[in-house]
Amino acid sequence: MPRPFEIAAADGTIDALLFTPPQGGGAHPPVILFTDIGGIRPVYEVKAQRIADAGYAVLMPNIYFRSGRAPLVPEDRHFRDMLATLRGYAELLTPEALQRDFAALMAAIDGEPACGCGPVGAVGYCLTGGFPVRLASLHPERIGAAAGFHSAALAAAGNPHAILDVIPGVKARVYFGHADRDEHLPPDEIAAVDGALARAGVHFATELYAGAKHGFTSTDTASYGAQADALHFKRLFTLLEETIAAG
């Protein structure tokens, strides 16, 4: 079971959940998991615990803490029915706000006994697919792995979550798993991000998941793809094992 976690931040208190391996005690390599646009909900709790079961301490913050405590989507509603509201919440996640939030998350990890003091991993989905790279640019000496899946608008002109400008500061190893039929991330944006990563000398890999749709890891959506989801976990576990796992 996850443990509720309260994090003091510049803009308020971030409510979060901390997931640890079933064997319990000790410190584990830390991973920050950023949810998709739907926020914290059961499907992401299952996802976070699966990562924790592999030997990691997984911190899942409520990215919308400025708008309320999680869950912000009522149990009797689907997040896709509230997209307009959720996009309004997301507008508060400016680069400057994220910088403040990320500093609070890193401080929380440093002060949590369940989290090891080694490199930190980060993974994001959909809206937050670029957050791990932004985090890695702000904390280059701490973030060892940054992964994004079915990411959105990574290089869209005028989008505050685009990451092209922050890539030169990244030292982490980066992995992106993209749906090959994703209306939220066209081929030209994928190419732009890949080019920026290559020019910056970042150790990275990009992969197109054949037949996958945007949201392929989310079991509570019609776009879920079991084969693509399984590949996502395989790639994520490999990345974490090769970058932040102890020993």
What's the layout of helices and strands?
Elements: E1 3-9, E2 12-19, E3 30-34, H1 42-53, E4 57-61, H2 83-90, H3 95-110, E5 120-125, H4 131-138, E6 143-149, E7 173-181, H5 187-199, E8 204-213, H6 226-243
Parallel strand pairs: 3-4, 3-5, 5-6, 6-7, 7-8
Antiparallel strand pairs: 1-2, 2-4
Protein described:
The two termini are 26 Å apart. Strands 1-2-4-3-5-6-7-8 form an 8-stranded mixed beta sheet, sandwiched between helices. It is built from 6 helices and 8 strands; from the N terminus they run E-E-E-H-E-H-H-E-H-E-E-H-E-H. Strand 5 (120-125), helix 4 and strand 6 (143-149) form a beta-alpha-beta unit. The protein is 30% helix and 23% strand. It is α/β, with parallel strands linked by helices. It has one domain: 3-Layer(aba) Sandwich (Rossmann fold).
CATH class: Alpha Beta
CATH superfamily: Alpha/Beta hydrolase fold, catalytic domain
- Work out the number of β strands: 8
Strand order of the largest sheet: 1-2-4-3-5-6-7-8
Give the end-to-end Cα distance, rounded to a whole number of Å.
26 Å
Overall pLDDT: 95
What count of structural domains? 1
**Radius of gyration (Å):** 16 Å
Under CATH, the topology can be stated as Rossmann fold
- Report the major sheet: 8 strands, mixed
Please give the share of residues in helix. Answer: 25-40%
Number of helices: 6
Low-confidence stretches: none
State the CATH architecture.
Answer: 3-Layer(aba) Sandwich
User: Strand percentage, roughly?
Assistant: 15-25%
Order of helices and strands: EEEHEHHEHEEHEH
What best-fitting shape do the alpha-carbon axes yield?
A: globular
Could you say which structural class the secondary elements and strand pairing correspond to? alpha/beta
